[in-house]
Predict the structure.
Amino acid sequence: VTSFTDGEWHRLHPLTPLLRGGITFIAILGFLLYNIRDILIDIVLGGDGRNGEPLVWLYESQYFWLAVLAVLVVLGAIIVGYYLSWRMNTFRITDEVVEVRSGIVFRRNRKGRLDRIQGINIARPFLARIFGAARLEVNVAGQDANVKLDYLASASADELRREILRLASGTRVAEAQALQAAQLDDTGQPITRSAAAAHLIDQRVSELLAPELDPGLAAPESVVQMHTGRLIGSLLLSGFSVFVLLLVGGIAWGVAATGSYLFLIGVLPTLIGTGSFYITRFTRSLRYSIAGTPDGVRIGFGLLSTSNETLPPGRIHSIQVTQPLLWRASGWWEIKVNRASTSSQKGAAGQANTTILPVGNLDDVRKVLALVLPDHVDDASVALFERGMRSKGGDDGFVNSPKRARWYLWSSQRRNGFAILPGAVVLRQGAIWRQLTIVPEARMQSVAVSEGPVFRAMNLATIRVHTVAGPIAPSLSAVDRTQALRFFREVADAAISSSSADTSHRWRSGEVTP
Amino acid sequence: VTDRLDLPEVTWRRVSPRYIVVDVVGYIVFGVIMVGAGSAVAYFVSIAWLWFVVAAIAVVFAVTIALTPRRVRSIGYQLRDDDVLFRRGILYQRFVAVPYGRMQLVDINRGPLDRLLGLSELKFVTAAAATGVVIPGLAEADAEELRDRLVALAESRRAGL
């Protein structure tokens, strides 16, 4: 039994070079084998008439053995190279850092601090799934600052994530050991070599058929699953579909007007592209689930290639709930977040992995907000969020823009407002494209208020809350100046008190264990 | 009700008036290059209305330079117990509050003119690119003292991201 978190150096899965080389490697191998088989058949049966083929020509020429030697040398060099690169690629996990060493000639060494972990991503491309391997990526704050471990055995990737998150959470050692012992008991003996060989096929099949989200991992009431019909509907009711409809209409008109079908040839590639766009989005979002686990929010998806990511508490820097106009009738919403890291792994539907709920109804939104904002599940906050999403505006807990801002916000003046909860700032915008932005005070970097000449003449101002870069830039324009200054003062104070009380970089360190 | 953004409870620390020189010289150099390039194009292409464009550019630069003293006077900052307050701008006003615990690093930049006049520019970097707090025109010694103080403050109030 090897535990990866013993502070020693460990190696990756032995099939790593094959999986990294992927399909190309298999294709080349297949091509060679196919040709060699033909040659062998020819030798045995004495057939001819295959003179045109390069391998046959080579076989009959005087350089044949030289060529064989060259191929063997190159193959040997590649295999030795891959073997060395696998041997030299090692990683270790200590109480403070996760560290990876790689490279044969040029050595690379990368360390990620555990208390700066923003999320852990486990991806299983289809080929890797067949071999029971997985790619683990530790996202650390910053651009391109991720620590990648590709590939690991599928089961150990899950265990490693659990271990890293346990170390990162700041759980005290005594409790940790108890936890580890318990885990060993209920998972039984982690796969030994002989047992693995005996059950290999069995195990692969069951892994391939297993549900994407292990039912034992999260409390069922916290799980939000993607509804297939809703997924199809949301794809059809997107801005992209409007564009496609316009395109198709334009083509139909062109054909009807000119009587020639030449138009169709020109747009055929576009149509094929459109089809594959829809199919990719659809298959990538299938089996989508978002669930609360003890170490954070887990987002998983994928049918053939699966991927799942765990975001520890306090790693979400702002949250935005939006409703495009086309989704109004069906009452669907989308949720995006800002995060301090960028993952190389795409999110569901091939979108950026900042979209944590591609589409969901009000109930789904309620559940997801409870997962990402665990401190705001009281009735008052939930009611406020809902008013922020659906209310037409007015005096409903939000401080809204004054009537005189109507010329600027002609449709949304009544809804355009802010509310300050203990621990979070809530901004509501848009009457046609409804939008609700929530920023946890403990995560905000700074707060600003500004005013240009036009707003000054109207006694209005713009407020902004700065968070890490992402799809959301929380701001609210055309706020009454006195209210804007009040917001500025209150939020500046609240940001300080909330961040000094915040311990989420070691999210379990506050818990006292015997 | 005041008629512009203001925080009356704050006593602002202003930047050195010598910074006006730096700013004015910078704009003059930039303006001369722009107007010179524009004139050259207008002269060689010999399109009459291009001269109006050049004249407009010259006027914009003249106004900008004339307003520089006021703009520099509008820059202010205050170190409060737990955060830095910063303001700038006359036509477009902006106030920012940055908690010390949020500072990732403090930069000191000194251009050639800054060095001649013994000035420094202090830049605060947080995890958010939009924070954008840059205090120009600080006396060299002040800037370094301020940086050390800010780093110490940031260290004592360090929080996660």
